[in-house]
């Protein structure tokens, strides 16, 4: 008869490795999972797994270990991941301005710097695709200079609006710098991300009522699917509104898999200086195992209790035939301010035939969505 393997506890790598040694010394076979093989010493959410029939003895050893060494707790303010720089992609539209307003409030609370990046059209890129492109090159310099001049003028007006807003809402002195680059927006934003190394990227989207592709925007969509952008992305819908950020209700929609722990770690670092109420919810269609979901949610709840005890946190499972509709009902009920999800990058064929949940959610919500890649 095949033995069942269960998770005894979830901890940091150091504590999990120590407990593994204690268990094996007592003749209890033990396995570790969710270990960061590249940097094990900074791996969080490591699972200590055992055979189910060893549970009574293992629990005694676990309690003895905690009594001797205390419960492991991680101070999120000392996390290796920090949010002291914010990158905002702008095109000077109203929804771009709305995204910047969110960045101002966030920067004021996190004491972060803001870098605005705007990519304007580079006529040389398209001209070079024609065999007789040399016939256009005589006035290309003039066209380029005119486009650059226009972008500089619009950026100056844009920054003036932001500073006026910051003054009106008493947000204090916020460092705002700019980057004007000629090229395709996606390419330039990706390149700037590598150079500037922000803690979070903020993008704007158009409001509901538009076509899905138009609402999300080709640039935002490409960045969400990019394999080279591995930084949290806050996507702000045009209709989202913010007046203050004194207290934030955050919904983290869990996948109930090992990617949750890394996403939670990054999320807590982003909000470390905010007054936050945190809701960890799994929205189930009822197709998966209820008992398994409950067991995994308990593991996440225990992880929160040990690691982030300074926050108010609620964990729950909600069944709904339409996940997005169920999520929107929960958002209204709990007055959620920001939605946070983990977005799995898929192959090109998968993306073509199975539109991502992140895109569906962005099209059907008016709340900002904070997205972590896995």
Summary tags:
Rossmann fold; alpha/beta; Alpha-Beta Plaits; ten-stranded mixed β-sheet; three-stranded antiparallel β-sheet; 374 residues; elongated
What this model shows, in words?
With 374 residues, the protein is α/β, with parallel strands linked by helices. It folds into 3 domains: 5-72, 2-Layer Sandwich (Alpha-Beta Plaits), CATH 3.30.70; 85-237, Rossmann fold; 247-347, Rossmann fold (3-Layer(aba) Sandwich), CATH 3.40.50. The chain is 43% helix and 22% strand. It is built from 13 helices and 13 strands. A 10-stranded mixed β-sheet has the order 6-5-4-7-8-13-12-9-10-11, sandwiched between helices. A 3-stranded antiparallel β-sheet has the order 1-3-2. Strand 10 (275-284), helix 10 (290-307) and strand 11 form a beta-alpha-beta unit. The longest helix is centred in the middle third of the chain and has 29 residues, at 140-168. The radius of gyration is 24 Å and the shape is elongated. Residues 37-42, 73-81, 128-135, 207-213 and 347-355 have low confidence and may be disordered.
């Amino acid at each position: 008869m095949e033995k069942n393997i269960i998770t005894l506890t979830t901890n940091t790598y150091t504590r999990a490795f120590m407990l593994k040694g204690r268990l094996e010394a007592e003749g209890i076979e033990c396995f570790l999972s969710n270990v960061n093989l590249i940097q094990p010493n900074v791996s969080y959410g490591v699972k200590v797994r055992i055979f189910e029939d060893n549970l009574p003895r293992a629990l005694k050893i676990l309690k003895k270990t905690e009594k001797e060494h205390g419960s492991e707790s991680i101070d999120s303010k000392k996390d290796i991941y920090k949010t002291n720089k914010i990158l905002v992609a702008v095109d000077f539209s109203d929804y771009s301005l709305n995204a910047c307003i969110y960045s101002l409030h966030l920067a004021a609370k996190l004491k972060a710097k803001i870098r605005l990046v705007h990519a304007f059209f580079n006529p040389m890129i398209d001209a070079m695709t024609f065999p007789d492109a040399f016939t256009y090159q005589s006035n290309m310099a003039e066209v380029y200079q005119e486009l650059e001049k226009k972008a500089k003028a619009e950026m100056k007006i844009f920054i003036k609006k932001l500073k006026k807003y910051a003054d009106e809402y008493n947000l204090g002195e916020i460092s705002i710098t700019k980057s004007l680059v000629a090229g395709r927006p996606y390419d330039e934003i990706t390149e700037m991300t590598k150079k500037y190394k922000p803690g979070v990227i903020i993008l704007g989207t158009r409001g509901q009522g538009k076509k899905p592709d138009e609402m999300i925007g080709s640039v935002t969509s490409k960045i969400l699917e990019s394999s080279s952008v591995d930084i949290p992305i806050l996507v702000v819908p045009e209709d989202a509104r913010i007046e203050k950020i004194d207290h934030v209700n955050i919904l983290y929609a869990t996948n109930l898999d090992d990617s949750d722990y890394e996403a939670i770690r990054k999320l807590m670092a982003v909000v470390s200086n905010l007054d936050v109420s945190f809701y960890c919810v799994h929205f189930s269609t009822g197709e998966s195992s209820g008992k398994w979901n409950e067991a995994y949610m308990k593991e996440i709840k225990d992880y929160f209790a040990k690691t982030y005890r300074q926050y108010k946190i609620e964990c729950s499972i909600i069944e709904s035939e339409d996940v997005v509709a169920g999520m929107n009902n929960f958002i209204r009920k709990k007055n959620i301010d920001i939605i946070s999800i983990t977005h799995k990058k898929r192959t090109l064929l998968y993306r073509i035939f199975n539109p991502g949940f992140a895109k569906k959610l962005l099209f059907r919500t008016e709340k900002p969505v904070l997205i972590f890649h896995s």
